[in-house]
Specification:
Protein name: Protein RRP6-like 2
CATH superfamily of the largest domain: Ribonuclease H-like superfamily/Ribonuclease H
CATH architecture of the largest domain: 2-Layer Sandwich
Domain 3'-5' exonuclease: 147-278
Shape: globular
Structural class: alpha/beta
Helix content: 10-25%
GO molecular function, one term: nucleic acid binding
Pfam families: DNA_pol_A_exo1
Biased composition (Basic and acidic residues): 1-15
Distance between the termini: 39 Å
CATH class of the largest domain: Alpha Beta
Amino acid sequence: MDEPEKVRGREDAASGHEAGGAEEAGDGFQLVIHGKKKKRAASGQDCGTAGSGFGAGPVRALTREKGAAPVPGAKVPFHDPSIPRPQDVYKIRVDNYKPFEHVWLERSEDGTRHVHPLENLPVEQFVDRNVPDREPVKPADLEDTPFTLVQDHKGLTELAKKLKSVTEFAVDLEHNQYRSFQGFTCLMQISTRTEDFIVDTLKLRLYIGLYLQEPFKDPTKRKVMHGADRDIMWLQRDFHIYVCNLFDTGQASRVLQMERNSLEHLLLHFCGVTAKKE
């Protein structure tokens, strides 16, 4: 018996084996409260008395029993040292020695605050208040929508051409911070009215901005995102892409005071699509 097992045995003996008859939960974990092991239900709630909850006392530990079966669905271990770092495979280099060039803003007349460069421009230059009512266009079924995985220069060139020929497209990014301090964009999803694209931004990191800057900054093309706060920052940081003419469905749902603001809810409410957010 190794040292941790001996320590656990002494702790169980000190507590009088009050939880000796408790069975292991389905996920292989037991909850230890005040020295007592309580079986955890499949729903993640305490299986003790109805009046006792997690507020009954501080949680000391959440331990995994030796030899317990792995959690269902966790087929690939997250912390796997054998997985190569994308920074090494795709030659992603970060220049940490470049000095920060501060751009000083003008101060207000009373000198109490800085003036944003866009503050003096009229709102009419940013918001088109004369947008006519339009009948919503229902998206085509996934089975009828062509899908393209972009992994090379040829595919990126074709994608840029197609984005130049449309007036609107939707964008979503996936970001990864595993074994990276700042993180990096690892996937870009783009959809037009007729096609879907997934761009491998690790393989094409050095070329994304060169090919896609123009359609993203074109003010005549509407870009649709959901909760774009982080996406805007990632596009600027990783690819030097700046977005003009953005419609954020997350902010629109808040303006409309909808019951929920998640993309999953909007897809179900407006499109009748049940998203599998796993």
